[in-house]
Amino acid sequence: MKDARASFDPVTLAAIAAAAVLLVGAPFVFYPLFLTKVLCYALFACAFNLLLGSCGLLSFGHAAYFGTAAYVAGHAAKVWGLPFEACLALGVMASAALGAVFGYISIRRQGIYFAMITLALAQMIYFLALQLPFTGAEDGLTAIPRGKVLGLFSLDDPLVLYFTTLCLFVGALMLIHRITHSTFGQILRAIRDNEPRAISLGFEANRFKLQAFVLSAALVGLAGANKAIAFKLATLTDVHWSTSGSVILMTLLGGLGTLLGPFVGALVVVTLENYLADSGLPIQAVIGGIFILCILLFRRGIVGEAQGWVETLRRRRAG
Amino acid sequence: MDNHCMAANAGGETGVREPILRMQGVRKTFAGFVAVRDLNLDVERGTIHALIGPNGAGKTTVFNLVTKFHQPTSGRITFNGQDITAKSPSDIARLGMVRSFQISAVFASMSALDNVRVALQRFRGDNFAFWKSDRTLRSLDDRARELLADVGLDDARDRKAAELPYGRRRALELATTLALDPELLLLDEPMAGMGHEDVDRTSALIRRVAKDRTVLMVEHNLSVVADLSDRITVLARGEILSEGTYAQVSKDPAVIEAYVGTDHD
Ligand SMILES: Nc1ncnc2c1ncn2[C@@H]1O[C@H](COP(=O)(O)OP(=O)(O)O)[C@@H](O)[C@H]1O
Ligand SMILES: [Mg+2]
Fold first, then answer.
1. Is residue A285 part of a domain?
2. Beta carbon pairs, A and B, within 8 Å
């Protein structure tokens, strides 16, 4: 019988340990608020990747779940004065519910049709956000109070904010890892590999895909709600199609279907946006150019390529 | 030849002589083209029934209709006396009718063992349990290994399905199908692309598993068909050309004519 932890080989363990040291040490070197932003978008990308990587479903409307949770959490904090945890929970529930409805509508379609329908549905949310009274239209929801975590520590302290976000991020990442390595995850993988075959074995593919869709939307919601509280802001950008595009870019850049790929992709994109913001350069064009270059140079994304090198090294040493 | 007449558990409340599968006036058109023309087909319980015919005759379409991957344009299909015309493909599998595909269908990124194991998961109640570790599935490993050994894949357990040669992927697909222990097994060209040795082993396996179930099989290898089948239906242009035992069918002038100049082996 194999060791229960056999799925974590030494290289992976070393990488996880290094990441832990970096993540804990980072706020003492870089701006905690910037790092918090990276973590929020990294979670967004990881949750998006849950759907693309394990189901092969390319959603072009994931900003809808990010933005909805941002507005709901922001409203709950600002207007209802609810505590931080309750705001997050409401945001997550709102995106999960929206994901259940939109997923039900779109899941029957394949490939480009699926992408188009998810985009169309997300545009509906964008127009709702523009029209509804409680979203603040073009101004968005501003000056959202952050409140306290566990009712004890003020989130206005950047370090508290960062470490709270880090805990949520790590927890969500562990959940994603569990989902992809669960009894459910096995069937999802079979469906991704060969859907007609999975159906012919008696698995109702659409029900499995719908559950994956809802889980993805819920975790994206956690990222959106966290982001709204952290930046005291929920705006139309959060539900805009360019945000849906941006998360696709982060995922592909970092490495599709790898656990850490979306994190690395988010780090690169958010960092670039930050540095380019004051440069007067057209941000979208520059990022688009870098994206094309990366796709040409390393097709499997940054993490995917790195894993490839490690694999080659290991084989060379073994053989 | 083995005599696969009525299995002991035949019929149940539906009567002893009830065929396990019955197609009545089933038609399928694709944009006006009639692929299957008002087909009447009975498959008797406990038999190996072969469906043969030239390419494009509609054999795979019949499989797609019976397993509800295609909706019939008209007609009625019953399985164990139950009307299944309006069922979904996954319902069909749950009722006990499982198919294999003409183009080898395996889960490419998964190991051979995981391919079979995922089929065995069908019998569990935790298929939606996203919080439950897949390590709990190890209790299925022994059964999965047995199934792999049955098709001669015991040495390929940990290899990715995508890396297996074509003939062995077919064997894997068969093991995965058998994992569900179906009452009616539909095999679409199970031996296409297999070497001599694999053909012999697969023939023996089909004969063995057919002892307590029914098999409907499309196969181009006529010596295999002659050897295995209790009954043969010859299809051409979506219609039944001839039906009977191999001895009867092979003497039918219409069959001989249809097969002249076509690419059977
Ligand atoms: N999905 C489909 N759309 C259009 N035509 C089809 C489709 N499936 C099968 N056909 C046509 O139906 C006929 C029968 O095909 P098929 O059942 O695959 O034959 P066989 O398995 O006997 O070789 C062929 O002419 C084929 O082109
Ligand atoms: Mg065919």
1. no
2. 106
